[in-house]
Amino acid sequence: MKPYASVADLQAIGLPESAFVPPEDVTQAKFDAAVTEQLLTTSAMAETYLRGSGLYALPLTGTIPVELTRAVCHLMAPDFLAWRGYNPDQFDAVYAERAAAALAWLKDVAKRIVVLDLPAPPPGTPTNSGPGRAGISTKPKRGW
């Protein structure tokens, strides 16, 4: 799986430039690799909601929808700022609000209220819906 957002995408949502300056003892390449790893973890979390919808063959390949990229960035921003050592009482609370909105959006994706503009998976591609999907069934009521 590749991350559904990049360091450049994370920068584009308006985080302070100082957040992307590595600590003195870390090279820029090593720092960027650590941020990319965090983006990968956040993308995997977002993917659990996509999987819940049952509509998409995962991991996504090709062009990632911009709204998913944005959601991944917003989800990661508060953790990224905390990881960089920002005091939550001092940074703008809008990052936490955006993360909450992104999480609510992903929940709507999982419930199929929001559907991403992605091609349907090829026939025979395992998803979480349709024939062959795990289900629960019971016999008639037992009268307990």
Q: Could you characterize the architecture of this molecule?
A:
It is a single chain. The protein is mainly alpha-helical and 144 residues long. It has one domain. The protein contains 4 helices and no strands. The termini are far apart.
Topology:
Elements: H1 7-12, H2 28-53, H3 66-83, H4 94-110
Principal-axis shape: globular
What portion of the residues fall into strands of 2 or more residues? Answer: under 5%
Helix content: 40-55%
Q: What is the overall pLDDT average?
A: 84
- Please give the oligomerization state of what you see: single chain
**Major pleated sheet:** none
| First and last CA, distance | 48 Å
Uncertain segments are 130-137
Descriptive terms for the model:
144 residues, globular, mainly alpha
Q: Quick recap of the structure?
A:
With 144 residues, this protein is mainly alpha-helical. The protein contains 4 helices and no strands. It has one domain (7-110).
